[in-house]
Design brief:
binds zinc ion, single chain, mainly alpha, globular, 10 helices
């Protein structure tokens, strides 16, 4: 719902969901993630219009991300913000892939919520909250600062637009959550993001010749998720744990 409504400026609270074709309201029993789409065989109950498979795919992806977050963090306080973070990153990634933008209506509230959540989490779960808050916030600023330099450097050299300010705002959020675990992981996020972005970018270029805007958000997000999931292994490998 966020993916469909936020870019067009609609409210995510009201009105309740309805079929875009016949405008019939969608009853709660037809609004169960994935299950309803399968039971309705991908069609509106009242007019039979096809419901795109993207809807259940996003719902399924979100469920998978929450399971992965559960496996990584177990039953802990950390699980709550990181599972929510994964959902926000999913929404931003799909929007970026479709529209080549990361809406301020998602990035700004997420930045503020991240700062508040990191403060609460640091006091609730660590012996040294000041250090954890500082390392999270500095990592967010550091990642965003680095991408800003890259962004303007790229534009200066190529006279083309690569990344946008949306990517920089996303990097603040990613840096905070990756850096809260350990600041060095931000470097790994960037490496993973570059590898994902490069591999997919080259593949896309090979398939279609004409140049189109290239979304960086999904790869930045994926890089951070990879660094968060593999953080124990990475920190052990570099001798920090
Ligand atoms: Zn309908």
């Amino acid at each position: 719902m966020v993916i469909v409504r936020v870019p067009s400026g609609e409210s995510v609270l009201r009105p309740p969901s309805k079929c875009p074709q016949c405008e019939a309201p969608i009853s709660p029993r037809d609004n169960i993630p994935v299950v309803s789409w399968v039971l309705l065989r991908g069609r509106c109950r009242s007019c039979g219009t096809e419901i795109p498979a993207g809807y259940p795919l996003v719902e399924l992806s979100n469920a998978v991300l929450w399971v992965i977050a559960g496996l990584r963090f177990g039953a802990s306080w950390e699980l709550v913000p990181y599972a929510l973070l994964f959902s926000v990153l999913l929404a931003l990634s799909v929007i970026d892939l479709e529209l080549y933008l990361l809406p301020n209506r998602i990035t700004y509230p997420s930045m503020i919520a991240s700062v508040v959540a990191v403060v609460v989490l640091s006091f609730a779960t660590t012996d040294d909250p000041g250090r954890h808050i500082a390392q999270a916030l500095l990592s967010g600023l550091g990642y965003a600062g680095f991408l800003t330099v890259m962004l303007f450097g790229f534009e200066f050299v190529t006279k083309k637009q690569g990344m946008g300010m949306g990517d920089v705002k996303l990097a603040v959020i990613l840096g905070i959550w990756v850096g809260w675990i350990e600041p060095v992981l931000v470097v790994y996020s960037l490496i993973f993001a570059s590898v994902f972005g490069l591999v997919v970018g080259v593949a896309v270029l090979a398939v279609r010749r004409e140049s189109r805007p290239y979304p960086f958000g999904p790869w930045l997000a994926l890089g951070a998720v990879a660094a968060i999931l593999a953080s124990d292994q990475i920190l052990e490998a570099v001798g920090l744990r």
